[in-house]
Design goal:
The complex is a heterodimer of chains A (278) and B (337).
Chain A (H helix, E strand, L loop, with lengths): L7 H20 L1 E2 L1 H18 L14 E4 L5 H10 L40 H14 L6 E6 L6 H12 L5 E7 L8 H4 L5 H7 L3 E6 L3 H13 L6 E6 L7 H4 L7 E2 L2 H16 L1
Parallel strand pairs in A: 2-3, 3-4, 4-6, 5-6
Antiparallel strand pairs in A: 1-7
Chain B lengths: L30 E3 L1 H10 L5 E5 L9 H6 L4 E3 L4 H13 L3 E7 H7 L1 H9 L6 E5 L16 H6 L5 E3 L4 H13 L4 E5 L3 E3 L15 E4 L4 E5 L2 H14 L5 E5 L2 E3 L3 H8 L5 E9 L4 H11 L6 E6 L9 H7 L4 H12 L1
The chains are: A alpha/beta (278), B alpha/beta (337).
Chain lengths: 278, 337
């Protein structure tokens, strides 16, 4: 494991996981395993890499964060709560009537949510437009875009991958979550996308592949993506573990959309606490 | 089943062009070149937020005029329509007003979900300008957007415009640029007929305009069918049939006030005429509104049939599917008995 440059990032990741589990408990089900796998990436994005003002989510000078995989909203809400963009008191409204935190991320509902997800394979196209627009404005902001390995099945993602390189969008930092699980089963069995690193490099991207649950490696990858000199868009391929931090969820078979028995939520929180002190 | 080959009938001339791009201008008709492209250039001077985007169809949507005038405000996105509209939504989210062009079939059928999610749902200021709307290509169903109005009418937030000629196109371009929010405009490109300059007419977004008064028949029409209705009106004059034309270029929001007022004038046959499938377009929109508002004139509909249309020369196809001037004239005469 790479050395941690900032110990509090582990704390941030812990709180993001905890927030996500608490929201999962509100509904009794959800995309919890994904939230747990991506918590480390979100901790580094929101507490190391990105510029933003919690009290002013629309601040023009902010870095943009696009959530292409809208079903990961539970994870992003958890990070936005930890970042102080959404008040913690809203957590218990997750997925309920009249909540600003719908199950699938939508731009019209939630502070800090920059796009409407749900229909997969769209985020990178929006990112291309935002990057072109930021360049027109002479802005130095980055556009971070998180998407999932299942979205690699969508042709539109490859349109955007070609386009970002063609337009030399060096202000785009994309992160693809390789948790190898989509709705019908393991992603690599749905539609093979490997060797992904070589593909993306051939498509003209500055590409890194890391263990997305190694905070030190995630920090190093975000730093390198920002610091890279050259006109290429930047891709971080993050290999992650579904359910990371809660052992009985890490090993669960049907992990895409999980139902958890009422007594298990407490066990999940206890597992997170145990991991924190280990 | 595939048809059997029929040899040409001796002595019968056969129209030969089923090219993708065919002019809709009749022989000798006054035209104006690239009205959309020139209008956009004119607007862009005072509107630095306007940018042009296309998916490998700049020349075929008259956007090359804009690209030449403002090369640094033009984005060639390649032949990738989903990307085109996703990126247009992204540019709009950063404060720009993209005019994004392609063919109507690709905007409506291929990129529908992207427009729905990144433009309409987020209420972005993107103007979709789409060539070859309805039946304006003899190339076959791949390029015939017979259902584009139905699809975009069904999308919340979307304003839908179907201009008649060069003048209408110029003025509608300015109007959708001034409108805050997403808009879909059917594009007539190349040398576009100029018709409405002969009438006391001005395009207003959301307004239907009486272009010609008539005693016996009221045609409510949009797009090139207004041009055809005006031609039919002249032919019917010689039969002593007086035909009025209510031009309704904004399909959504529909100017129900004017439509109800005109349709309620007693005794007239009401005919809705559109270059669109009979399903889901102007005709059904008006029929619904008249039913709901208790206005029940004798009602007829001139529209394309619910089938995959043929390839061939446009005049042949317009005759076959009942939207040529002659076909419209004959239909109306038949209905009047």
């Amino acid at each position: 494991m790479a050395e941690l440059p900032n110990k509090s990032l582990a704390d941030r990741a812990y709180h993001i996981r905890r927030n996500a589990v608490l929201m999962g408990e509100v509904q009794g089900q959800g995309y919890i395993a994904q939230a747990l796998d991506i918590a480390d990436v979100l901790a580094v994005a929101y507490f190391h890499a990105m510029r933003y003002r919690p009290e002013e989510p629309e601040w023009e000078g902010r870095d943009r964060f696009l959530l292409s995989n809208g079903h990961y909203a539970i994870a992003l809400y958890a990070a936005l709560i930890e970042a102080g963009i959404i008040p913690e008191s809203e957590l218990e409204t997750y997925g309920s009537d009249d909540s600003r935190l719908p199950m699938s991320g939508m731009a019209q509902y939630t502070p800090g949510m920059e796009m409407s997800g749900g229909s997969l394979g769209i985020g990178l196209s929006i990112a291309v437009g935002k990057c072109l627009g930021l360049k027109r404005k002479g802005s130095s902001s980055f556009v971070y875009t998180l998407f999932s390995d299942g979205e690699l099945d969508e042709g539109s993602v490859w349109e955007a991958i070609l386009s970002a390189a063609h337009h030399r969008l060096d202000n785009l930092i994309a992160i693809v979550d390789i948790n190898n699980m989509q709705a019908d089963g393991p992603s690599t069995q749905m539609m093979g996308f490997e060797p992904l690193m070589e593909k993306l490099e051939a498509f003209g991207w500055f590409t890194q592949r890391i263990d997305g649950n190694d905070l030190g490696a995630v920090v190093a990858a975000f730093d390198a993506a920002k610091a890279h000199q050259g006109p290429q868009p930047r891709m971080i391929i993050a290999d992650t573990l579904m359910g990371k931090g809660v052992p009985f969820l890490e090993t669960r078979d049907k992990s895409h959309f999980i139902r958890v028995d009422p007594h298990e939520w407490q066990l999940a929180l206890q597992a997170l606490d145990a991991g924190r002190t280990a | 089943m595939k048809p059997k080959f029929t040899p040409p009938a001796p002595g019968k001339p056969r129209l030969t062009t089923s090219a993708m791009i065919a002019s809709i201008a009749a022989e000798g008709q006054a035209t104006k070149p690239a009205p959309f492209g020139h209008a956009l250039v004119e607007l862009a001077g005072a509107r630095p937020d306007i940018v042009g985007m296309t998916a490998d169809l700049g020349k075929y949507t008259d956007l090359h005029i804009f690209a030449k005038a403002y090369p640094d405000r033009f984005y060639q996105m390649g032949m990738a329509e989903q990307l085109l509209f996703g990126a247009a939504g992204g540019l709009a989210s950063e404060g720009f007003t993209p005019f994004a062009t392609t063919y109507a079939v690709f905007a409506s059928r291929r990129a529908y979900d992207f427009i729905h999610q990144t433009i309409a749902e987020e209420d972005r200021d993107v103007k979709i300008v789409a060539a070859l709307p309805g039946l304006t290509s003899g190339y076959g169903p791949s390029h015939q957007a017979a259902e584009d109005l139905a699809l975009f009418r069904a999308m919340p937030n979307m304003v839908v415009v179907d201009p008649c000629d060069a003048l209408d196109t110029e003025q509608a371009t300015a109007a959708i640029a001034a409108h805050k929010g997403p808009a879909y405009m059917r594009l007539l490109r190349g040398n576009v007929p100029l018709v409405l300059d002969a009438y006391d007419y001005r395009f207003e977004l959301g307004k239907a305009k009486v272009i010609r008064e008539g005693r016996d028949v009221l045609v409510i029409s949009s797009g090139i069918l207004t041009m055809r209705a005006l031609e039919a009106a002249k032919l019917l004059d010689s039969d002593n049939i007086s035909l009025g034309v209510l031009h309704c270029p904004t399909i959504k929001p529909l100017d129900v006030e004017t439509i109800r007022r005109e349709a309620a004038k007693s005794g007239r046959l009401v005919v809705v005429a559109e270059n669109h499938t009979e399903i889901g377009g102007l005709g059904e929109a008006i029929a619904r509104d008249l039913m709901l508002s208790g206005i029940h004139p004798t009602f007829r509909h001139i529209a394309l049939p619910d089938e995959f249309l043929g390839a061939g020369a446009l005049p042949t196809l317009h005759d076959r599917y009942g939207i040529s001037t002659e076909a419209i004239t004959a239909s109306i005469k038949g209905w009047l008995g």
